[in-house]
């Protein structure tokens, strides 16, 4: 269900497995409740992952820590990067997807042409196998289903994300890959934190091309990202 990546004084960083609920439902403990039960402590969720999505999650250990993280996320000072696999050829190999989002049918969301309060996603991609591309995604906003909608709008829905038209697979191939942020605590002052989770679950994540691309993308902040609007 999860692995503990880091156990810091004020917060935990865990890796959630795919197909695990974030919130408790149907009489089954969600990942946050399960970690609380296993460790015997109260935890505060400061961001979330969809059930199909795997990867890194921050769980604050106090209301004070949760408040600081909420402020960091609100100010977009937590840098997040995701990995996704998708089949087919995208309309563009790198760039931006920007647009408002609205609820659609069957719990789906859709991308609109308006940009009043837009979802903003930056992406970079590389071919990793015949007809298969790996995407490094950086959300600059925090909308529900944002990354799933972004790739679907490019004509390349995420592999295994059947809700948005992705081809059937053993999982939805979306993974919260890395986190970078600066956090303040009374004992140490401001500290920089960086976490990556390369323990990718899923048959298609194990192909050689993915490993090669990840070696090149080991530090996403060093990528030559395309200029906004280009």
Can you characterise this structure?
This protein is 17% helix and 35% strand. The protein has 230 residues and is of the alpha+beta class. The protein has a single domain (2-222), classed as Pseudouridine synthase (2-Layer Sandwich), CATH 3.30.2350.10. The strands form two sheets. Strands 1, 2, 3, 4, 5, 6, 9, 10, 11 and 12 form a ten-stranded mixed β-sheet that branches. Strands 7-8 form a two-stranded antiparallel ribbon. The chain is globular, with a radius of gyration of 17 Å. The mean pLDDT is 92.
Helix tally equals: 4
What is the tally of beta strands? 12
The overall pLDDT average reads: 92
General shape: globular
Question: Helix coverage percent of residues?
Answer: 10-25%
Radius of gyration (CA) equals: 17 Å
**Helix-strand category:** alpha+beta
- Report the β-strand fraction as a percent range: 35-45%
The CATH superfamily turns out to be Pseudouridine synthase
What CATH architecture would you give? Answer: 2-Layer Sandwich
Summarize this entry quickly:
By secondary structure, this protein is α+β, with helices and mostly antiparallel strands. It has one domain: 2-Layer Sandwich (Pseudouridine synthase), CATH 3.30.2350.
